[in-house]
Amino acid sequence: MSMTSPSGRGLRLAVNLVLLVVGLLFALPLLWMVLASVDASATLALQAPSLTLDNFAKVLTPDLAGLPLLNSFLLSAGCAVITVALATLAAYPLSRYRTKFNKRFLYTLLFATSLPMTVLMVPVYSLFAQLNLIDSLPGTTLFLAASELPWAIWLMKNFVDSVPTELEEAAWVDGASSMRALWTIIVPLIRPGLAVVGIYVFSHAWGNFFVPYVLLLSQQYQPAAVSIFTFFGEYGAVAYGQLAAYSLVYSAPVLALYAFVWKSLGGGSALAGAMKG
After folding, report:
1. Of 100, 129, 167, 192, which one is least surrounded by beta carbons within 10 A?
2. What is the pLDDT of residues 137-192, one digit of tens each?
3. How far apart are CA 182 and CA 168, in angstroms?
């Protein structure tokens, strides 16, 4: 019995239509945000703007944008640095030293990544209250880093696995310790992996609303993801123009970080040519 398959042209047309619909679903909200940010009478509808920069002038104030963005940066950068450093230190022995506990430990990490944050927040809030860490920016940063560690270790281990062990063995012959080999050989070669984990952790912490909303009560410590609620009125009234302008300002640091890292890495792999010679 012969099986029929869709023609190549029909299949390509169907795939292109699906991709077009998905692209529009992503593009239309972004287009609305750009147009509404410069619209003097912005609504929820996608419309031609009455051009003005008043929306940006109203949101770019120290209290509304300056301090919340600074808090977001401190939270996100601290979380990214701690997560990348600890994930690298944890991934290296998991990659290089085989024990009977490795697989169980990795499966435990995989299970930890599946736990929803809402399930953890009640005991975490109780623990933070007992340790007097409620309304603490460093405490919240440490918890965000801890919540990102399971998948970061899993991902970082794959990058360390891709580095040939012959490079370290040559360093060991020259008298280098394991930590020195990690710092001088592994870390430079897995720079793309460090960048991937760092960007993802930074952007995830930058957009995290729930954890800072629960653990940071004072307005002076709240990040931009929480302070964006300022634009939602008590009776359902929303300042759409200011909300769109604030959203653009809020998105700019993450996009700038991505562009900077992408340009710095050049889109190439640091592993290229590692084994030459």
Report:
1. 100
2. 999 999 999 999 988 998 999 899 988 888 888 888 888 888 888 888 889 888 88
3. 8
Task: List, for residues 5-63, the tens digit of each pLDDT value.
Answer: 556 788 888 899 999 999 999 899 999 999 999 988 888 888 888 888 898 988 888 88
Helix (H, G, I), strand (E, B) or coil at 143: helix
Conformational region of residue 10, where left means phi above 0, alpha means psi within -120 to 50, and beta covers everything else: alpha
Which tokens sit at 218? Answer: 């004072």
Q: For residues 14 and 20, give the distance between their C-alpha atoms in angstroms, rounded to a whole number.
A: 10
Angle of the 102-113 helix axis to the 137-161 helix axis, nearest 10: 130
Q: Is 139 left (phi over 0), alpha (psi -120 to 50) or beta?
A: alpha
Q: What contacts 204, CB < 8 A, 6 or more positions away?
A: 148
By residue count, the chain amounts to: 277
User: In 3-state terms, what secondary structure has residue 174?
Assistant: coil
